[in-house]
Description:
By secondary structure, the protein is α/β, with parallel strands linked by helices. Helix 18 (450-463) packs parallel to helix 26. Helix 20 links the parallel strand 13 (493-495) and strand 14 (515-518). InterPro entries: ATP-dep_Helicase_C, DinG/Rad3-like, Helic_SF1/SF2_ATP-bd_DinG/Rad3, Helicase_ATP-bd, P-loop_NTPase. Keywords: ATP-binding, Helicase, Hydrolase, Nucleotide-binding. It is an enzyme of class 5 (isomerase).
Amino acid sequence: MAAAIDRAFADGEHLLVQAGTGTGKSLGYLAPSLAYLLEHPRGRVVIATATLALQAQLAGADIPAAVKAAEKVGGRTVTHAILKGRTNYACLHRVIEGAGAEQDTLLGAAEVAEGLRKTRADASSVLGAEVVALREWARDELDAEGAGDRDDAPTHTAAAWAQVSVPVRECLGAQQCPFGDVCFVERSRAKAREADLVVTNHALLAIDAMHGNTVLPEHDRLVIDEAHELTARVTGAASHELSPQQVERVARRCLPYLDDDLAIEFLDLGEILTDALADAPLERITDPESPIVATLARIRDVARRVVSQANGDEPEAKQASAAAKEIFDVAEAMAALKDGDVVWVSERERFGRWLVAAPLDVAFLLRDRVLSQTPTVLTSATLTIGGQFEAAASSVGLKRDERADAGAEPDDDAQAWRALDVGSPFDYQRQGILYVADRLPPPRRDGITPEALKELAELVWAAGGRTLGLFASQRNAEAAARHCRAELPGQTILCQGDAQLSELTRRFIREPETSLFGTLSLWQGVDVPGETCRLVVIDKIPFPRPDDPLMQARQNAVSRSGGNGFMSVAAAHAALLLAQGSGRLIRRVTDRGVVAVLDPRLKTARYGGFLRSSLPPFWSTTDPEVAVAALRRLGPEAKAG
């Protein structure tokens, strides 16, 4: 992997690398990155990750160790920095100028907040204490010339953090803000501009692309880790939302700066949008003459007038105007119903209906604004789909006929790319079994079947707990937990929603015979080597919801262009998640266990072979007795005997 990246950096080509769990993937790209920087003292390499966890691991452990080793070899210290989006840092203007009266207490605010949480005080009291604690912490960070990074802050909720941070739109800018010279964001960007190696995230990479490459410092090589997440993260960064609550909240902020007529008109728009959404179907909006589009046009026009009128010099007026400008921009974009956008009505149980707009495709954005700017390495443990790299390449804008290691003849506009699968140190055939329950009935929409629940309980019993259950929905996870708790009263079954997911995961790791059931967030984010996880159960092939407007639109677009929309979008999505989910089982060379898929379609459906080719090459069986016997041999009773 390191040799291939070294070549790609030298030749200025793009490279896709699939590096299985356990290969030392981070070192695989850090070594050639540091070598490149030692050879090019004026160069800069940016590394973009999907998760804050990997970002922190790189900045706190992997990079310092690699830099120290590189210094011994090259005689020069490579500098490095971490760069996040604006809302990950405390805003000093918000903290100091926006702070209310502080609460006098002999205890620190963080201790007060923790005490309130433990006594289960009302939410407003906890929120208030958390905000005070965050303000104290931000001031301490200022005095200590710290980073003001949310990851270092006292325990808090998202609502509390929103009181001490500021959205991009509402930032006054370093030149106009009274705290511009000590701003945490400006400090982080200044440090990044001086660093040789910068670690950022996919979302900030997307924002940089959408804003003309003005967010990240200039760089001449780019590494994208967790690249299987890239298109989803870029799609999220390029998406917009609009709700009645949002319109009403911004209208109230703007009231002091508007005349009475415009203020009333702006306030009424929240209720008008609520009524329009109530009458609209929960689906994609395609008719430019629909009532919801007319409502969006009205919001756009009123918001334009608000932006023009709310133009005072004081910071609060500027921030209110910026919030109204965001309402204008989003409403304008949604009302346009551009061919490249998907706009739909969605619904949340707690907050009701709202509007969402997302790009139909982000491949052109990535090709034109990222890959065309910088030779790029994209790497992940799961980058092939159906055993091929072409789907991943296409998703980021690379074309099949541009693949240099397949004999492509590049022209002037080509983005030459190569691909490499470095394999895995694991012997999957000997370490794991894939059991497909092909005798079960197919999954149904109204919940997990009784037959699947019975099979699940037997497998968990055979494993002696030690089970990670990955379910297609929260309803299925909860039904499975109830059933297993009733059938296996001596075992501990944790279920997502019982407590914070981080606490449940810690218990699962700490208590080997405990099982953990959950949904999508467990498919990719849990690393549990050893005795704790002997069985991974997947209840259903994780196809996207058939009523997901964005996935529907993407499938239709592929079909219209002559492709197979189902295979290119739905099956590819499922294959990626199956690979990630089944990859939870084997995390070390000493791990052993079973991946059990309770969906017979993995074996019986025409697309089953395509999905199986994306999984680790486990030894496979459809015989439940074989799976049960294998789990019993790995169980605690067998070890004790």
